[in-house]
Amino acid sequence: MLALLFPGQGSQRVGMGRDVCQASAAARAVFDAADAALSMPLSRLCFEGPEAELLATEVQQPAILATSIALLRALEERLSQRAIVRQNPSGAARGSPLGAAYLAGHSLGEYTALVAAGALALDDALRLVRARGAFMQEAVPAGAGAMAAVLGVPPEAVEACCERARAETGELVEPANYNAPEQTVISGAASAVRAACALAKAAGARRAVTLPVSAPFHCALMAPAAEKLAPELARIHFADPLAPVVANVTAEPNAAGACVAELLYRQITEPVRFTAMVRRMRALGVTRVLEVGPGRVLAGLVARIEPATRRRSLGAADELDPAGELAVA
Known about the structure:
four-stranded antiparallel β-sheet; Alpha-Beta Plaits; 329 residues; six-stranded mixed β-sheet; single chain; 2 domains; 48% helix; Malonyl-Coenzyme A Acyl Carrier Protein, domain 2
């Protein structure tokens, strides 16, 4: 049984998508649609930069989404041209992309998964994530917030360190991403994040590394962004997905379009439960995962969460055929 995974913010690089755009008419159509939907040269920023513009949160988010969908459409095109019959694993909805039984994404990647599953139109998704990026950037003054990755201790230990840091500093810090059994990202006020990192090191953490991010994502400090995004979500029609999309905030598959807006609203301030998402899909019968989008972060995390799961990444044109082999295995 196959699941498709889509990466989140931080996986971008200048040049992403250029080779697949040159190799695939379907990919070119995605980038053309993105440029038109946003009334900006998103494709040029992906292919050529400059990096400083691509790193802006409101550009980075639609850029990663567009690149991921372009790669998916290119793979679908390649398989169709080669007349490869896609298997429809038990539990997969008829017509789901590549016959996938489930789809999921990390943070921003959940929007990409919804597009891939047919629950969200591409142009609506691009405009939503551009607004989402801007709202998240505006929610906390520059320098006031921070995020850090804590490695080498279980999530329960990180949670305890956050609780102690909140008590000591009087400021917010909490888990933002449960990425792997011993990799938890924390988010909050900069001083509280520093205090939690010091406590984690004292508790045996191998490393506690401040991340180069522009805002403290997935914590309660993002409440202003969630409130601004709510009316944008309310204007969008979300269809029932062709295959269930595993939600970040619940780690459960969702097959109802009517539930999507609430899940995306909650996602702004609640942690990404990626470890639980991967374990849930494995329990449901997933044995293969294909990460579609720039970078290889999610496939690496899956290897640490469920090592027996077969995995591959599709992030460039020269990976289309190996990715196809996994998709139809």
